[in-house]
Amino acid sequence: MRHILNFKKQGVELPTFAESYVQTLLFNLQAHDGNTQAHCVRVSEMALSLAQAMNLNLMEQAICLYAGLLHDVGKMKIAEKILNKPDKLTQEEYDLVKKHTEFGVELIGPLTVLPFFRKVSDAILYHHERIDGKGYFNLPEEDIPLASKIILIVDTVDAITEDRPYRKGRSFEVACDELVRCSGTQFDEQIVDCFLDVFGRRRVEKTNKAA
Ligand SMILES: [Fe+2]
User: What secondary structure, in 3-state letters, does the chain show?
Assistant: First the structure.
């Protein structure tokens, strides 16, 4: 995988078994639901760019990269017809979908012999926590891993802008408006500001040029 190899060159090297395990998980996720796998790859790339823009150290950048790649891997344990259901989910289905964070942690269990993947595991488990404490686990802001806060933001942007089987993706500007609207409740304000600096203004300038 291109960005994992690039990362190795920057000095963060993981044992071969870990890389193979991650690749196998992503391969299996693609076989189960290609949309989710493609989403994970995009989220990991955006999370890494944001982590770099925030001047996080290489280890923290790598956590963002791998947690991004694997954040929704637990959806492999949920039927594809529920993941791509065009109609509103039943309460039972919704409760099951919410379990994907825990399923993800189970799936990467063998990797957590490495301290690095214990951090990735926490970032995956808590990637739906909100800074107002109203997330899946009602975790208080100070206990939410930084990588989880970053992933929540890029995950939201990708979810809004990507096409789903049941609806067309909305514009990047709509996604940025949502970040601003929920900044300070759902999202960390400083990370939102950084996201808008890194992606927002550049995209807006491009749009203006094209107009
Ligand atoms: Fe998720």
Answer: CHHHHHHHHCCCCCCHHHHHHHHHHHHHHHHHCHHHHHHHHHHHHHHHHHHHHCCCCHHHHHHHHHHHHHCCHHHHHCCHHHHCCCCCCCHHHHHHHHCHHHHHHHHCHHHHHCHHHHHHHHHHHCCCCCCCCCCCCCCCHHHCCHHHHHHHHHHHHHHHHCCECCECCCCHHHHHHHHHHCECCCECHHHHHHHHHHHHHHHHHHHHHHC
